[in-house]
């Protein structure tokens, strides 16, 4: 099935925008997106070439398509879009390649990372709350750190990012609606786009929340990449997750986010778990804590995280809340998370659950949605997850999700 889906992604699509269409919503920018476009599809073809299941030309063709326009290195750029996304795609899809443009791309990503670090330092000095995009995986420093972990694990810049994430866990001395109960990653952003800020919120998810930084800190520690305070920062995040873990009849769960009102009430408004997605649900949160347990090491925490994930997989009500097969929100993300968690697991419970999750992914892999080609939110991610499970490949494409 992975090959069948890949066969629908052999050629980049013809342009569906005009030559002078440079607006922020133009489809021309999708090419440099891991989520929706050519950068993500190139990773699929590159991994297949590395495992001997295809030639290199499809990967090169999609990479050429991804670099057809000037790469974005501004406020919207991050691991999933723009210069960092294309650099990450090139590093993952064609690790042997050394095109003349790679030095310029590395410089561009390093420059962006330093600018983001400087802005974060100024924000911390001003005792202000961070935006999610300052630190998250999609656009923030966690995502840039994930790329550096793949591209330059021994570099000084990655350690600067890790040091920033340690500081992110320190409380912010500010008299606002959230107050002193709020952790350092409490964001001033509204909990939902378009809604009033109302004191900001804390986000628990892997894509935009604190479990992304937790996973990066843990993965770096697992590779013996250490900065002062790293273990303590992991501990502070874990304690927060412990405090907000809820107990339900089918197992533990976490809210997707909490507001200032919920913080002061010491109780989430949600009455049960939402969909079991990688991006916001129990699977991503549990995988991050499993990685933390492995890195510290803390076998009890690792076991608790694995139990939470296993019990989530045994709940048909939660599983039925998934409505698409994508990596970000759907079956592929769940399957990939469980796949990598099972590889690291202390017990056999996740191995026992994995075949059922794989069957569900295969059942839904060709659903009508998503109608996109990309890795994170499209068909390429579904195909790559299936390919990984079928071949057992250990190529680290899932660094873009911080699950491996």
From TrEMBL:
Signal peptide: none annotated. Residues 1-25 are annotated as: Disordered. CDD domains: LanC. One of its GO terms (molecular function) is metal ion binding. It holds the Pfam family LANC_like. The keyword Secreted does not apply. SMART domains: LANC_like (SM01260). It comes from the Bacteria. One of its GO terms (biological process) is peptide modification. Residues 1-10 have a biased composition (Polar residues). Zn(2+) binds at residues 279, 328-329. Keywords: Metal-binding, Zinc. Gene3D superfamilies: 1.50.10.20. This is Lanthionine synthetase.
């Amino acid at each position: 099935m992975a090959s069948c889906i890949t066969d629908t992604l052999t050629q980049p699509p013809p342009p569906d925008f005009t030559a002078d269409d440079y607006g922020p919503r133009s489809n021309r920018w999708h090419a440099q997106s891991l989520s929706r476009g050519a950068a993500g599809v190139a990773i699929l073809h590159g991994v297949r070439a590395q495992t001997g299941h295809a030639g290199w030309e499809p990967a090169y063709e999609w990479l050429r398509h991804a670099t057809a326009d000037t790469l974005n290195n501004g406020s919207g750029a991050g691991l999933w879009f723009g210069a960092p996304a294309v650099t990450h795609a090139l590093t993952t899809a064609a690790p042997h390649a050394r095109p003349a443009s790679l030095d310029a791309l590395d410089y561009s990503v390093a420059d962006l990372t330093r600018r983001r670090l400087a802005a974060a330092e100024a924000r911390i000095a001003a005792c202000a709350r961070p935006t999610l995009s300052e630190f998250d995986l999609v656009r923030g420093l966690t995502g840039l750190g994930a790329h550096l972990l793949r591209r330059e694990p021994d570099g000084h810049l990655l350690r600067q990012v890790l040091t920033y994430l340690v500081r992110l866990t320190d409380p912010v001395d500010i008299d606002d609606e959230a107050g002193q109960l709020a952790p350092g990653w409490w964001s001033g952003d509204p909990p939902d786009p378009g809604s009033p800020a109302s004191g900001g919120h804390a986000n628990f998810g892997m894509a935009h929340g604190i479990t992304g930084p937790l996973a990066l800190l843990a993965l770096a520690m697992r590779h013996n990449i250490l900065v002062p305070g790293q273990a303590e920062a992991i501990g502070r995040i874990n304690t927060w997750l412990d405090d907000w873990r809820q107990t339900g009849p089918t197992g533990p769960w976490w809210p997707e986010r909490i507001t200032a009102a919920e913080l002061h009430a010491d109780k989430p408004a949600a009455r049960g778990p939402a969909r079991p997605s990688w991006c916001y649900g129990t699977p991503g949160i549990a995988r991050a804590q499993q990685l933390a347990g492995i890195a510290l090491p803390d076998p009890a925490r690792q076991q608790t995280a694995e139990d939470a994930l296993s019990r989530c997989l045994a709940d048909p009500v939660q599983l039925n809340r998934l409505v698409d097969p994508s990596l970000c929100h759907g079956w592929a993300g769940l399957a990939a998370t469980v796949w990598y968690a099972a590889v690291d697991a202390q017990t056999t419970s996740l191995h026992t659950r994995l075949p059922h999750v794989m069957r569900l992914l295969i059942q839904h892999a060709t659903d009508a949605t998503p109608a996109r080609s990309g890795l994170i939110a499209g068909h390429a991610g579904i195909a790559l997850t299936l390919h990984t499970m079928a071949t057992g490949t250990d190529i680290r494409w899932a660094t873009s999700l911080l699950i491996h």
